[in-house]
Structure to design on (60 residues):
């Protein structure tokens, strides 16, 4: 099966949806895994680590 102009147009029509789903998936992964190196940079979530003793060393 060759990749033709029709396939390119179809992919471009879904690019916005793919970008939004990818961003939502990335943010969901960061939220649910509590990826501390990244979430400390998010302003509204940074307060979750105030006053918490650091038990691990993070290389961020």
């Amino acid at each position: 099966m060759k990749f033709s102009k029709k396939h390119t147009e179809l992919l471009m029509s879904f690019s916005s949806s793919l970008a939004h789903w990818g961003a939502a998936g990335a943010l969901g992964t960061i939220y649910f895994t509590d990826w501390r190196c990244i979430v400390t940079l998010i302003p509204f979530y940074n307060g979750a680590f105030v006053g918490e003793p650091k038990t691990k060393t993070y290389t961020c």
Remarks:
- The CA atoms of residues 4 and 10 lie 10 Å apart.
